[in-house]
């Protein structure tokens, strides 16, 4: 009985010892697992990124400008003789050739003047012929003393006056023919006419205040006029003087509706810089064989450098913004990330020029930027299709 009582007292104590031992083992196991997880978390995560190998490239640089198109030739067609308009031979907006008759001013008066001038010329020539015969006869007679020297001089004078009358009649005929020709109003240039300003039946007068019949603008070529800043002007002239031949032409690109680009070149610079704006008036020349480009249209222009320049180009995906600053992330030689502030230039074929902040050989992150920060280790993969 006493032994059973002792046994009941030992069982709880033994159970407690077993429980404590088991608990100790469990705590030991949990502690070991936690330590392994902490070690794993302490190891740095290697983030994969795509990088672009920065290199120097030779490209033509372009600057953007805006301007207006203007005709190479533009004529306000006015009557050069007076009279009634009897015929109009063109339609609004028609393409015409130099010499085409566009309008007719009643030519009858001018035709009569031509006929009269021809008759006057014929009479003057007849008088000259008679005077020439009289002069020749007088020369023979004065030689043998039959007539006096005074009579001979009169015959010579009569001949000279007759010759002058012929010359005058010739001039009058030429003037009459010119006025008759002006009765047929012709296109002085190839181009496109404007609308008909005066119709048949209107009376017109020649002179400085003569009304405009229509306007003609040339279509084969067209100008683009724009203002170029002083700095770009001098840089363009300096670069053009360093090359020779056709390369001296400063290229200009004109972008029209639909994104189509037309290539041209600088035709001329003005002879002075506007001191108020610091710009110089510049004119570019473009082909316009189909006449689609119209004077007065807005012109979106790009002025190129005469030659190519060595620059650093990077993909726009690599560029980030920090308030008013632009920066990129570069991968250093130890495969850690570094912050690099950059200064950007113009855009070339979808890439951006970097004027400062990068050197050839730098590795710029272009994909995975949002996952990195300065000092973080990364696993870079070089982008195969780099800027070109």
Automatic annotation (TrEMBL):
Its main location: other. InterPro entries: MdtA-like_b-barrel, MdtA-like_BSH, MdtA-like_C, RND_pump_MFP. It comes from the Bacteria. Residues 310-369 form the Multidrug resistance protein MdtA-like C-terminal permuted SH3 domain. Keywords: Coiled coil. SUPFAM superfamilies: HlyD-like secretion proteins. One of its GO terms (biological process) is response to antibiotic. Residues 114-179 form a coiled coil. PANTHER family: ACRA/E-RELATED COMPONENT OF DRUG EFFLUX TRANSPORTER, CATION EFFLUX PUMP. Belongs to the membrane fusion protein (MFP) (TC 8.A.1) family. This is Membrane fusion protein, multidrug efflux system. It comes from Thalassospira xiamenensis.
């Amino acid at each position: 009985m006493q032994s059973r009582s002792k046994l009941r007292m030992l069982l709880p104590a033994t159970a407690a010892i077993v429980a404590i031992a088991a608990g100790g083992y469990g705590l030991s196991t949990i502690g070991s697992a936690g330590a392994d997880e902490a070690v794993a978390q302490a190891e740095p995560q290697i983030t994969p990124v795509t990088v672009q190998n920065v290199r120097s490239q030779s490209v033509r640089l372009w600057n953007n400008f805006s301007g207006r198109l203007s005709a190479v030739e533009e004529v306000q067609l006015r009557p050069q003789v007076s009279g009634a308009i009897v015929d109009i031979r063109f339609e609004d907006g028609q393409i015409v050739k130099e010499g085409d008759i566009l309008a007719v001013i009643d030519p009858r008066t001018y035709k009569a003047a031509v006929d009269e001038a021809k008759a006057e010329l014929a009479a003057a020539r007849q008088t000259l012929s008679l005077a020439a015969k009289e002069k020749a006869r007088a020369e023979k007679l004065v030689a043998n003393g039959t007539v006096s020297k005074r009579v001979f001089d009169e015959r010579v004078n009569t001949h000279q006056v007759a010759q002058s009358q012929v010359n005058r009649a010739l001039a009058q005929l030429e003037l009459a023919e010119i006025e008759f020709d002006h009765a047929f109003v012709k296109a002085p240039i190839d181009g496109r006419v404007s609308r008909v300003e005066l119709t048949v039946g209107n009376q017109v007068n020649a002179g400085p205040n003569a009304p405009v019949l229509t306007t003609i603008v040339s279509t084969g070529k067209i100008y683009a006029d724009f203002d170029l800043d002083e700095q770009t002007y001098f840089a363009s002239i300096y670069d053009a003087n360093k090359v020779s031949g056709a390369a001296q032409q400063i290229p200009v690109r004109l972008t029209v509706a639909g994104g189509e680009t037309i290539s041209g070149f600088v035709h001329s610079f003005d002879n002075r810089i506007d001191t108020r704006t610091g710009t110089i008036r510049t004119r570019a020349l473009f082909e316009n064989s189909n006449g689609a480009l119209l004077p007065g249209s807005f012109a979106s222009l790009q002025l190129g450098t005469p030659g190519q320049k060595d620059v650093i180009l990077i993909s726009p995906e690599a560029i980030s913004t920090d308030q008013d600053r632009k920066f990129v992330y570069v991968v250093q030689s130890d495969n850690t990330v570094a912050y690099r502030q950059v200064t950007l230039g113009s855009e070339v074929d979808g890439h951006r020029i970097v004027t400062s902040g990068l050197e050839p050989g730098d590795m710029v992150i272009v994909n995975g930027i949002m996952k990195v920060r300065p000092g973080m280790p990364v696993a870079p993969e070089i982008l195969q299709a780099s800027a070109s």
